[in-house]
Amino acid sequence: MTFDEILNKVRTIASSVSVPDGASLAVQVNLTGPEGGVFYVEAKGGNIRVEPYEYNDRDCAVTMSLDDFNKLIDGKLDPIFAFTTGKLKVDGDVGKALEFSKLIKK
Fold first, then answer.
1. Which residues pair with 90 in a beta bridge?
2. Which of 44, 58, 103 is nearest to 79 (CA)?
3. Which H or E run includes 39?
């Protein structure tokens, strides 16, 4: 799977998620590997944006391989397991990273 395919998959998932008006979440996703890249997910004001850019004013940044991220969003990789085994690294608020993982699971 390519970075663009992952980005479109996350956008599709995000379009079907209901976000409460008061919710606020900004997460940068760093995908490693030859097909990797960077994007961010922002949930704010009842809307979710997914953009292929770095996000400086974020709650946290998560870093993992593109393949493991695909498994995560498909529900084939538990985020807690991924974090404890080093497959998922979090820079910033770990609680927000957990909220994010629940948000993007199919």
1. 62
2. 103
3. strand 37-44
